[in-house]
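Dear support,

Our group has been running a series of protein-ligand predictions, and this particular one with farnesyl diphosphate is the one our PI (initials K.S.) wants archived with full inputs and outputs. We had some confusion internally about which version of the output was final, so please treat the block below as the authoritative record. The input we submitted was:
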Amino acid sequence: MNPLKHVAIIMDGNGRWGLKYKNSRNAGHRAGLNTVEKIIKETIKNNIKFLTLYAFSTENWKRPKKEINFLFNLLENFLKDKIEELNKQKIKLKIIGKKNFSSKLNNLLNLSEKKTSKNKRLQINLALNYGSKTELIFAFKELAKNKESINEKNLKKYLQTKDIPDPDILIRTGNTKRLSNFLLWQVAYSEIFFEKKLWPDFNEKDYYKIIKKYMSIKRNFGKI
Ligand code: FPP
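Confirmed final output from the archive:
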């Protein structure tokens, strides 16, 4: 059995799902949030300690303002409604990415992180305004500024995932095979699963199937 500490997910396909079933991309984002809740429950059930969810990339700012506003409203309402429950379930919320949103949202994010900071059952890293290239450039700049030698150990100190293990599993839904600037350094040895289903259609069973498949893989990390 492979140890399974960290699952990272690119939750792709909301827009297409929304257009297909409700004639609205935003309806797909709303439906995607239900999947988020299901997957959190299944993650806890499987005793996985870290779940990283790609919710908004540095490139997503290129979307229409209306869709961006919808997404952040959805997030704001989700946190307002659910942060107590997440806290009760001993979930720690951490934002990765640059928090440069409205002061209202920044405050809510900071508060949610602070409130849940001591929890140990599951850490959810929510990637918001996150881009792996930006993260890496920042890390290299820090190394140069501090005149530190460039090696893996030193670099990791400046990554937003510095305190946690690299993902064992990376899942991308939505029938597209790309990494979209997500955790490029951290997924060097992750097992990658590309899933045909759109994110709102992805469910606990699909997730569990991936976990089981992962368990059966012989991970070599370059050895034989
Ligand atoms: C990608 O699908 C999805 C996003 C950019 C947003 C992800 C957001 C959610 C799952 C719901 C909100 C989550 C939280 C935590 C509030 P896409 O829109 O690129 O889909 P497409 O490829 O079909 O266009």
